[in-house]
Design brief:
Two copies of one chain form a homodimer. Chain A is of the alpha/beta class and 374 residues long. Chain A has two domains: 130 residues, Aspartate Aminotransferase, domain 1; 218 residues, Aspartate Aminotransferase, domain 2 (3-Layer(aba) Sandwich), CATH 3.40.640.10. In chain A, the strands form three sheets. A seven-stranded mixed beta sheet of chain A has the order 2-8-7-6-5-3-4, with helices on both faces. The first copy, chain A, has a three-stranded antiparallel beta sheet with strand order 9-12-11. In chain A, helix 3 packs parallel to helix 9 and helix 10 packs parallel to helix 12. At the A-B interface, helix 1, helix 2, helix 4, helix 5 and helix 8 of A face helix 1, helix 2, helix 4, helix 5 and helix 8 of B. Chains A, B: Pfam families: Aminotran_1_2. Chains A, B: Belongs to the class-I pyridoxal-phosphate-dependent aminotransferase family. Chains A, B: Keywords: Aminotransferase, Pyridoxal phosphate, Transferase.
Chain lengths: 374, 374
């Protein structure tokens, strides 16, 4: 009765764990894909001001001009080549990914996705009747243009890059991004660069090659407010791409999202004015260091360079069995690697929680893995 | 390069007019699909309270429990047969329609839509690779089960009902809805009943047959907050349907909308507590009467029974030519029937504006049609 496409679309393993958390007692939740800090008070005040000032109606499909202008200025400062018409405001980065996939994909198309992946990439590919093609980057999680090259066929329509990456925290080398974009251009393939975690950085290097913005012809760059400003429930993101793609986005958005929530678009301007909390990466680096210090004796973990996840490897046994073993009263919630991969060897741990919770969580995890191995 | 589906998806004729309005001087805008009144202060205060109280993170995919419980209670009071598990909170009714179409449709399927239609129905059908089949209800705009019956084929997957209807304001007779649902059940076809305008009513009769809720097996009922509470930019709606459909909605929402904007879900509870403004239909009936009284001598207009649109017929000439003729500085904006139909005979006028504006708008329209006919 239902569309056959949906048989391939799975319930999110991350959300499944998230929905279970409420049912358990005294459980430490390390599944969360959202920062633990509160939204800056000035941004919240601005959202309330917009609501009280009647900014509650539909906006233009591509977002309010004020927000687009602010984004334009910011990108210029960051060295991007950009016109106001290259910008499109979306309902979160998920909204942006959905619009992109829906614009580009049709039955028979292939989408190249690194594995482990953020499961939305895979499932939206299926939802668009296309086929995901995985580039296995276990165990080092290093993506190179050469690895991508091997997977390109005449059916490849899109390559998805996520840097820093969910669930590994790895960054794709700038030079490799340039190579991938060049390679794709030759093959008439689009590249999505999903930068949602770009403001959580633990290494001191530029991660985005601004020179690629000189030509948007096969490029869709996605950024969001959700993680950077801790407003995941406000559904606000944006895209920078060429005008032909934006024309298609406009059509699709008119019949789906209509527009990003109006008051939060105004609050988004304030968020950009205030800018990223300069202490955020330092604070999150401490969290990352806590995890690495406590868990490294027990698990093999690639040191995250960004985002707020790590992806420890099980010393032995199945990660999904272990996640189940951990998910009990007085336990700990993690997401097994099967939510990001065909491999059941690793699990994702989010360190976006307060340090005491994180330390206790890691200690519980150590007790659990010790018991699990017996 | 782009998905072939998109070639059939048109830019919304309504939004096109909406986007033009800002560019003209002293223009009276009668294109608006949103009420003219402000959101109730208590509801706005509740939204701000939610923001300040940190209700800014992802919610459960199907919406916060408090809102679903409140909706459940309300529907029970209205005589619906319903479980809490029949409810799903969406990002506006457009979000609900998108989820429904995406769940049900695949290539080759047919969707029965009344013509004139709300253009989202047609365009989302194309976006899902399916084919719209139109039931022409010109010139009286009365939909019956018999008219639907003629269009059913082995490929029909879905019938979409909108009552009160955009753009005509017509209500589908309760008994006809029952017949259509029964007929569809026999043919294994789903029925969407889109009730977004149900709180704008100008006739004294029940419009929804609650008895059909005894069996949700082929039923998707869609309602929204946007129009009733004037919060179009808040993106909040909901669906009542069977649990199998909701399971599919959950999967799709996880990769697209994620959840309706969190603070507005809390404000939605307050909106339901306060209930529909008891004067609203009376105030809108006055607006409707203004239009009917002023314009009836010049246009043939079916008296709207609900919603806040009327759909006058051109005495002569093309409606899209007339709309262009009206859209000048010091003019008036209306939406030509081609945005709702293959026929260029009528235009949509929204009376969701203050009475003075509306009177002036109608007067301008009379001047314009007089000049246009010369």
């Amino acid at each position: 009765m239902f569309s056959k496409r949906l048989e391939f679309v799975e319930e999110s393993g991350i959300r499944k764990m998230f929905n279970q958390v409420g049912e358990l007692k005294d459980v430490i939740d390390l599944t969360l894909g959202q920062p633990d800090f509160k939204i800056n008070d000035e941004i919240k005040a601005e959202a309330c001001r917009a609501i009280l000032n009647e900014k509650n109606r539909y906006t233009a499909t591509n977002g309010i001009l004020g927000l687009r202008e602010m984004l334009y200025e910011k990108k210029k400062q960051e060295g991007w080549t950009i016109d106001l018409e290259n910008l499109f405001v979306t309902s979160g980065t998920s909204g942006a990914i959905f619009l992109s996939f829906n614009t580009l994909l049709e039955q028979g198309d292939e989408v190249i996705i690194t594995e482990p992946y953020y499961n939305e990439y895979k499932n939206l590919t299926y939802l668009c009747d296309a086929k995901p093609v995985f580039v296995n980057i276990y165990p080092e999680f290093t993506l190179t243009a050469d690895k991508i090259k091997d997977k390109i066929t005449s059916k490849t329509k899109l390559i998805v890059l996520n840097s820093p990456a969910n669930p590994t925290g790895k960054i794709i080398n700038k030079e490799e991004i340039i190579k991938i974009v060049e390679l794709s251009k030759k093959h008439n393939i689009y590249v999505i660069v999903d930068l949602i975690y770009k403001d959580f950085l633990y290494i001191d290097k530029e991660i985005f090659p601004t020179e690629i913005t000189e030509d948007y012809s096969n490029l869709i760059i996605i950024e969001g407010f959700s993680k950077t400003f801790s407003m995941t429930g406000w559904r606000l993101g944006y895209v920078v791409t060429n005008k032909n793609v934006i024309q298609q986005f406009t059509k699709i958005q008119q019949y789906t999202f209509l527009c990003a929530p109006s008051p939060f678009q105004y609050a988004g301007i304030k968020a950009l004015e205030i800018g990223v909390n300069p202490n955020m990466s330092q604070e999150y680096m401490e969290k990352k260091n806590i995890v690495m210090e406590l868990l490294s004796p027990y698990f093999q973990i690639t040191d995250p360079e960004g985002a707020f996840y790590c992806f420890p490897k099980m010393p032995i046994g199945s990660a999904s069995e272990f996640a189940k073993f951990c998910a009990t009263d007085g336990g700990i919630m993690i997401v097994p690697g099967t939510a990001f991969s065909q491999y059941d060897t690793n699990f994702r741990l989010s360190f976006a929680t307060d340090n005491i919770n994180l330390i206790n969580g890691c200690k519980r995890l150590i007790r659990k893995i010790t018991a699990f191995q017996k």
